[in-house]
Amino acid sequence: MNPFNVLEAFAQFFYWMVYLVNPNFREEEKIKEIERREHTKLTLSIEKRKSQEKEFKEYDENRKNKINKNQDLIKICFDDPVFCDEYEILIEKLKLEIKKIELKKSYEEEWINTFSNINYGCYCRKKPNINIYNTCPIDENSLDNACKSRQDCISSKNLNWSEKSECNSNFSDFLNKIPYSKQKNFDIMTNEEILVLNANKYKALLSIYKKIN
Predict the structure, then answer these.
(1) Cis upstream peptide for 137 (omega within 30°)
(2) Contact 85, 179 (CB under 8 A)
(3) What's the predicted TM-score (pTM) here?
(4) Can you give the pLDDT at residue 9?
(5) Are 123 and 136 in contact (CB under 8 A)?
(6) Do 93 and 67 meet the contact criterion of CB atoms below 8 Å apart?
């Protein structure tokens, strides 16, 4: 028999004897196991964050390279309206691009689709749905309430949700009070962060349309 195997078996036997007989030893082992699990969780969390940061950096560099080459400008803008509104080069290039009739039409369609596809609460959507939540609007004196006011306005004037109109005035006043968020991790978001995310999209879209038209 391999002497090493004999020593290993003896060590295992000694370990279990101590584990069973000494309560303090058992508690120490529990603490060590908890520490090992917490360390593993922390390590995985750090690795995940680093990976996400790397992916975002590569994504950001890639889209800026495309902008420099005048590629996919409309798609890039409406994939991330906040980025588009804040990136002056992209706005200026879009102004030139949509002078072409076919691209102007594509820009208009993307603007309408992006605006109409934002869904938040009962009223921040193409068609209000007061059955989706127990209480509507879901946040008094906040985003869903501002959307309700806009829905009431466009309904009284027989307009569509995505139409640019005088109904945007009070809506814009509310949105302008909310600063742009730099949120990058969308895996876990609080209700407040979801509100800010959607308010930022509306704010950016209205701003883009005003700058370009």
Answers:
(1) yes
(2) no
(3) 0.75
(4) 58
(5) yes
(6) yes
Contact residues for 199 (Cβ-Cβ < 8 A; gap 6+): 143, 174, 175, 178
Residue 130 has pLDDT above 70, yes or no: yes
Asked if residue 209 lies in contact with residue 98, where contact means CB atoms within 8 angstroms, the answer is no
Query: Which tokens go with 115?
Result: 């605006």
Q: What is the pLDDT of residue 48?
A: 66
Residue 107 contacts residue 98 (beta carbons within 8 Å): yes
pLDDT of residue 185: 65
Provide the H-helix boundaries in the chain: 3-21, 23-68, 73-79, 81-86, 88-97, 101-116, 143-156, 168-175, 191-212
For 11-27, the pLDDT digits (tens) are 555 555 555 555 555 56
Query: What's the token pair of residue 165?
Result: 């109109």
Q: Position of tokens 């360390």? A: 39
| 8 vs 206: CA distance, rounded Å | 71
